[in-house]
């Protein structure tokens, strides 16, 4: 249940088409009009993952702040980290509009943006101005017209190495034709070798080794998951992000919008992405960090991702429905859930429902 004020704000924003509303929310964050969230730090939520210290486990997922316009403002909303991008070497305009659709009854979104972004340089300049403050990850991708996609990822590592706290190699957007083919075993091996070599080279000169995560789709076969796990482990990848949007349209109420092409996110993605998360945790073992994303809408659903095997979680779509207070509500809610569970640390709850979620093939 959302409160009447939130309902009114949402009604106002929903008068606009989703992309205009998104632009307005970025403008509001830039202007400082959105109040910062006053959170009392809870040491039970603090964790070191992939060598980085996270104040709390909730992050803003990639795609909201594609051009690194508002990372600081997002962190002030209560997020423990935020991920800019996907950024590509050259600016590109993406697919024709309309290309974002709200499925209100389902609390879901379909998007086929196609990596619209201002390119590496624009995002780099903004991040450089932050001078390393804040837990900001950089999500990198390839231009649609690139004739060497792997080279685009390597360029991302080289360009952002001095300003990224971590990298995400996004090979799972359904909106760049052929991109998901990079998840196939041989292509993935080639990608990981090049990307991690570029990272190691940069680390040798800077003395700072930036972790690299791989973001995968939820629409994978068992063999596809086996292959990704094997390559992740053999290349000493720093972690996985599970998952991007889905091509599935199962169980939607809004049948009219369901026919739109693109990736589906929000509440209907929760089950599927959480099940894939658990099945990947089973495959990679306990040590590899995993960020769980897909349909997180509350402290309960965030904790469920952790119970299914996630170290950290991210969200995007449900903030469209719940508003900018959602991050703070979830972080405070997690502290209350830890009280209830009498848990000394959020880490203690990881994997406590791993078997349940791994068996649940949504
Ligand atoms: C409008 C929109 C744009 C997105 N753009 C990106 C992107 O550029 N790169 C990326 O890795 N994921 C992108 N995503 C996927 C999200 O990061 C996330 O993986 C997915 O939406 C599932 O989380 P959610 O259900 O909380 O939204 C986008 C999602 C939406 C809704």
- Could you spell the SSE succession in H and E letters? HHEEEHEEEHEHEHEHEEHEHEHHH
Number of strands: 13
**How many domain modules?**
1
Helical proportion, percent range: 25-40%
- Biggest sheet strand order reads 3-4-7-8-9-10-12-13
CATH architecture: Alpha-Beta Barrel
At the fold tier of CATH, the topology name is TIM Barrel
**Largest β sheet strand count, sense and barrel closure:** 8 strands, parallel, barrel
Q: Which small-molecule ligands are present, each listed once?
A: flavin mononucleotide
Strand content: 15-25%
Spans where pLDDT lies below 50 across 5 or more residues: none
Give the structural class. Answer: alpha/beta
Cofactor: FMN
Subunit structure: Monomer.
Main location: membrane
Binding site for FMN: 62-66, 86, 139, 170, 215, 243, 266, 295, 316-317
Descriptive notes:
By secondary structure, the chain is α/β, with parallel strands linked by helices. The chain has one domain: Aldolase class I (TIM Barrel, Alpha-Beta Barrel). The chain contains 12 helices and 13 strands. It has helices at residues 4-13, 18-31, 71-76, 119-129, 149-160, 185-206, 222-234, 270-284, 299-307, 317-322, 326-341, 354-359; strands spanning 47-49, 52-54, 58-60, 81-87, 100-103, 108-111, 136-140, 166-170, 212-216, 239-242, 263-266, 290-293, 312-315. The strands form 3 sheets. The protein has an 8-stranded parallel barrel, surrounded by 5 helices. Helix 5 packs parallel to helix 6. The longest helix is centred in the middle third of the chain and has 22 residues, at 185-206. It starts with a helix and ends with a helix. Its cofactor is FMN.
